[in-house]
């Protein structure tokens, strides 16, 4: 498994992002919330398209918002195999940072790993229920 987060893996489609907020399911582990949605097979053989967001309401400074987004992307890049290895189908992810203060990388990574594990369990449970 390569630890990369390529351009084709990034969530950029406005249609999919709108659909995520309307129909997506969510999992939270403070200070991060994961909104996910099963989507039609994506072009370019990508299992998961992921995006990150930090609300302007909580962080007025663009510099701070961008730092948090970099932390989120980096921890996702290094730990995405937790979700990749346990899913079937294609998903769109959106990671929202809910905290009010600037986090340390270790806090973000720990929370993101827990979220991805919860996601894997929930998907396995949903598949089992079908």
TrEMBL record:
GO terms for biological process: tRNA 5'-leader removal. SUPFAM superfamilies: Ribosomal protein S5 domain 2-like. GO terms for molecular function: 3'-tRNA processing endoribonuclease activity; ribonuclease P activity; tRNA binding. Keywords: Endonuclease, Hydrolase, Nuclease, RNA-binding, tRNA processing. The keyword RNA-binding applies. GO terms for cellular component: ribonuclease P complex. Its EC number is 3.1.26.5. It is an enzyme of class 3 (hydrolase). It holds the Pfam family Ribonuclease_P. It catalyses: Endonucleolytic cleavage of RNA, removing 5'-extranucleotides from tRNA precursor. RNaseP catalyzes the removal of the 5'-leader sequence from pre-tRNA to produce the mature 5'-terminus. It can also cleave other RNA substrates such as 4.5S RNA. The protein component plays an auxiliary but essential role in vivo by binding to the 5'-leader sequence and broadening the substrate specificity of the ribozyme. Belongs to the RnpA family. Consists of a catalytic RNA component (M1 or rnpB) and a protein subunit. This is Ribonuclease P protein component.
């Amino acid at each position: 498994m390569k630890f990369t987060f390529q351009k084709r893996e990034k969530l950029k489609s406005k249609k999919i992002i709108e659909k995520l907020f309307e129909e997506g399911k969510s999992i939270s582990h403070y200070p991060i919330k994961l909104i996910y949605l099963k989507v039609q097979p994506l072009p370019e053989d990508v299992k998961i398209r992921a995006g990150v967001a930090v609300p302007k309401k909580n962080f007025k400074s663009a510099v701070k918002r961008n730092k948090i987004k970099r932390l989120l992307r980096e921890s996702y890049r290094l730990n995405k195999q937790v979700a990749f290895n346990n899913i079937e189908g294609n998903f769109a992810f959106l990671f929202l940072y809910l905290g009010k203060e600037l986090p340390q990388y270790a806090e973000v990574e720990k929370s993101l790993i827990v979220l991805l594990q919860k996601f894997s369990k929930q998907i396995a449970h949903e598949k089992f229920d079908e």
